[in-house]
Write a structure and sequence with these properties.
Largest sheet: 5 strands, parallel
Structural class: alpha/beta
CATH class of the largest domain: Alpha Beta
Helix content: 55-70%
Number of strands: 5
Order of helices and strands: HHHHHHHHEHEHEHEEHH
Number of helices: 13
Strand content: 5-15%
Distance between the termini: 43 Å
Radius of gyration: 21 Å
Amino acid sequence: MAPVTLAEDIRQRLGDCSPAERKVGRVLLAGWPAAGFETVATLAERADVSAPTVIRFVNRLGYRGFPDFQAALRTELDERQASPLTLYSTARHGGTGEDGGRPPQPGTAGLLAHGREVFTAAVDRTLAEVSPHELERAVQLLADPKRRVTLAGGRFTHLLAQYLGLHLMQLRDDVRFLPDRPVERTALLAALGRRDVLVVFDYRRYETDKVTLAELVREAGGRVVLFTDAWLSPVSTQAEVVLSSQVGAPSPYDSLVPTLAVVETVVAGLVTALGERAPEHLKHVEETAGRIGLT
């Protein structure tokens, strides 16, 4: 299983820090990850603290000094950008893969046992680490009938965007997918406003256009809900809600199984939040489908 990321570790430890150290942590998080590569003097100036305070802060995180902290950040960023090809190479040269568990025993029985171990652990840790507050806010935004929901995914995660979007379409109105055609996409983005919610799925090897999409929504006064991995997409700086998942898998590919579990949990929350509106909307949808011969 992937360890807690540096950014998450900083967030969790802020409450244990002195007021001056908290300033350092907030400056780091506000400019993450680039701020982590500033000099001690620059960070101290930006946080309005002394240089020794910066050193004490990274010491509190468990690092011997600032160079040690920056080395750990570089290692994490390398993991953040890992592709199936690099993970495949690691596995072939004796690595155990992103799941961090034992290599599978030979044969299909061993493969099944390994898959059960990896997926169970990844889903369990993901759901244990989801913030109740973040989940509640995601449900509030997606259940609000006054808001218009747009969903966007990536290379593989567009499948999850569609999965969530199709459920939303059965439960409420004003749900759409980000169009592929340039003219349609431009028109949609140009018409964004305060009632818009953008749901983004963005996982490592992050796609730069997702940050721009999120910026456009925020500039228009809308909200962003982000589904991402433990290393956190750059979209997280623009998102009101961040729902992160583990990606451990028995193959060189990042798993979307834990994310699907989070999506299913959000759908369950929506069904509860919408109350009688959900079955009424679903009934109307099915009646409409029957009239046009799609049932």
